[in-house]
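tool_call predict_complex ligand=iron/sulfur cluster
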Amino acid sequence: MKRSRDGGRGASLPVVERRGQEAAEAHGPRPRVVVSECLGFAAVRYNGQILKSRFVDALREHVVFVQVCPEVGMGMGVPRDPVRVVLKDGEARLHQPDTGRNWTGEMRAFSDDFLGGLDAVDGFILKSKSPSCGISDTKIYAGEQGGSPVGRSAGLFARAVQGAYPWAAIQDEGRLTNLRLRHHFLTHVWTLARLRRAEASEEPSALVRFQAEHKLLLLSLSPGGQRELGRIVAEAGVRPFPELIQRYRERLGRVFARPPRAGPTVDALHHAFGYVSDELDPSERTYFLDLLERFREGRAPLPTLLAVLRAWIVRFGVGYLEDQRLFEPYPPDLVDLSSSGDGQMVDVGPRPTRSRRTR
Ligand code: SF4
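tool_result ok
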């Protein structure tokens, strides 16, 4: 195969391979995601086991995974005596009841070292409930031996991650079985990967374009946040680009800090619907508005509404909306309507009656 001087990744690629590469990049560069190593990569659990996550498996071909087992990384073996998080003098410590050993210093040193040495990263998928990796549901104990947990919070490694990457997408494999949280996580991860691409270009115009393409997505998450991000972008070309990107990323992290509320999302979808509604049959209009109401009530999944709207956007060639990342924020292969629940039923209602009109 003929190669160009850039190693063959440019214009001299065969057409089929180039199209494949362009399709793979259509949603942005491959995100980089740090993952707990026991989630399907290596048998590193305290009991020598490995776990299975269908979601992590599905992501393998779409992201660059960076695996980590903080407990093995800081010097524990496999298998090993389990550890627990103990609250002592207001401080969370990592204690090993069977040996009486305190591993807090080692865990902090490992976390600082590992996180400080990471290349660009967009998200983290950490093991739920673990004293090291759990992001919010780890049992917290008052004593070093026995006793019942006094609450639940983050494990020690996860605390370091949350402190070092407040703007990143951070979830555990348990919550990612929920459709709403999974869609939000994937949207967050791919949005950050696209922002990295804008940053790498060192072109203020790339940030302007990024903001324009994400306008409806940002409005669906936080209209106030969208306006604030717009004000940051308005300084493109005036302020140093690295400073702008840093401020933008931090503000973007706050926009993504929680899954979208129904209200702003319904407003954004209704706004987009206005671009195609005149072209639709009455039954199609009724179908969509009914679906929107079901979504507002938590009875229809967001990816379904986005897919319906996207089909109409393509059919009617609405250029402005075709560019909006709201409608396909991540590769469609990853859309999976199964859900662990949390009020998110997969109920898309009756289909529209068949139209007599043909287009
Ligand atoms: S939960 Fe974290 S520390 Fe525990 S085995 Fe998995 S990767 Fe290692």
